[in-house]
Amino acid sequence: MRIDWKSVIPAQTTPFNQDLSVDHGQLAGHARWMVGAGCRGIVPGGSLGEGATLTAAEKLQVLETLVRAVGGLVPIVPAVASASTAESVRFVQDAGAAGASGFMVLPPYVYTSDWREMKAHIAAILAATDLPCMLYNNPVAYRTDFLPSQIAELAHEHPHLAAVKESSTDVRRVTGIRALLGDRLEILVGVDDAIVEGIAVGAVGWIAGLVNAFPHESVALFDAARAGRTAEAFALYRWFLPLLRLDTVPKFVQLIKLVQEKQGWGSARVRPPRLELVGSELAETLAILKEALAHRPSVSVEVVG
Q1: Domains in the chain, ordered, with CATH?
Q2: Annotated catalytic residue 237
Q3: Which H or E run contains 260?
């Protein structure tokens, strides 16, 4: 299925049963809810999806569940991340056979090195598939920074590199990539609290986090920003920002899953080494959510499915 990069695409959380096995029923229902709210794709197995704690078999099972649940409506674009190039290549090949529409490609876990090695890693993954791919640049989390000139190099050498998820937190990177490549790559914002600024300088899509709990508001914010309805976008953004900022701190998985649970979808369960929030962290997050819900705006979005 063709990927519409100019859209809100959730980086979906992975729900767990009490024994910490994947809850595939909840996974499917949650995806259907977000797609029904206007999201145009699903990215499973990324950082927010706790991909580092999922086995290769579990990642494929998650993909297969999502393909069955919403694959007829939207593309499923799994994250490709592992500690080794060989494992990433195997996953791309297996996931392509299992129904993936494309891939979000990350640098390797744990090992951080220079451009020569990182380019070879990304190139090996891209060579293993002819499906459209999105490069994920998140130097804050992964300590590998793909500079605009390096992204341009990859784009020139790999025609099916179609997009970049820019999560450096520096919106100047959007204009930097555009200056080198024009419209050759679709640029998506990967940091929730930079979405309006990112769109203003040329980003066209959003790989979103709080969308897992607030899909209607996320789609409404994105649509207003993309359409240039500035007053509407900033009014919604001001309300949303305390929640969106939960996506930008080390415990973003725990925070988003807690908010999602309180919105009636899934549970706050996480796999170790993560632990659920307690004490002041729990109280502060619940206070942020309570304040947001007390002033929750009414939004209207186009629905699908």
Answers
A1: 8-294 (3.20.20.70)
A2: no
A3: helix 252-262
